[in-house]
Amino acid sequence: MNLYLPVAEMSVNIFLLLGLGGVVGILSGLFGVGGGFLLTPLLMMMGVPAPVAAATDANQIVAASVSGTIAHMRRMNVDFKMGTYMVVGGLVGSKLGVEVVEQLKALGQIDFVITVLFVVMLGTIGSFMFLEGLRALRGGAAEQAAAKPAKEPRVRLPLRTYFPTSGLETSVLVPLGVGAFVGVLAAIMGVGGGFIMVPAMIYLIGMPTQVVVGTSLFQILFTTANTTFWQSVQNQTVDIVLALLLLIGSVVGAQVGTHLGSKLQGEQLRILLALIVLATAVKLLMDLVLVPADLFVVGAGGGH
Prior knowledge:
Layout lengths: L1 E4 L4 E4 H18 L4 H10 L4 H25 L5 H28 L2 H37 L13 E4 L4 E4 L1 H17 L4 H12 L3 H27 L4 H22 L4 H25 L1 H11 L2
Antiparallel strand pairs: 1-2, 3-4
């Protein structure tokens, strides 16, 4: 059954979009990521223009994050104090990212830039998380002890404060900076930024993996909601029909993912997420290198 998407100006299969939303919802609850790093490229591969795919994906991430955050709140796995600082940074970063998207659209380079950013970011983060996950599994008890919340801040900056839920003390500048960077990515790439935020919270800040997932979803919720608003008002690239179909699947999937995540160790979650991230990066790189003509055709349309 096909349905016409007014903003994307194309017809798509309803059940395919529901399935994609469900997969992203599972990733959201399982890993604490919005899933945009996977869904945005998949929508682009289906023929959805990159600006529409990115902006609409940010909208559906809101619903997946709400569902996942509620599930983790019931398990007391959300550090609201840490998440609030990240939200403040994310709101500023997402507005800045929307301005960048507007300029890139005017230049007709938005599709190419989004694809290259995905390849670089996913390849880097995926490789790092995969290697760290392997080290944690090989290290056994000693490595698990090292992965516990840091007693001393791993990044020494001013304005230090204590975060009781995470059991650590660090500078508020760290979560503010991480949130701002993720906010920019949310606007440009249509991602929640969890694939950056999760490793940053684990390795840079020193938060325990169980708390990281819920806190990441809490921050992603507000950042992507802000991104969706500004993309809709300023760039008119949010396809509400596409968003609603993705929302339905993602809300259900997030609950399933949260249940599955409670049965896996932190190290196993990192390796699984890393493999998914790397696989997506490889696919995008192949499209960029082997089929460059398609990218220029899409890019030309994006400038209209």
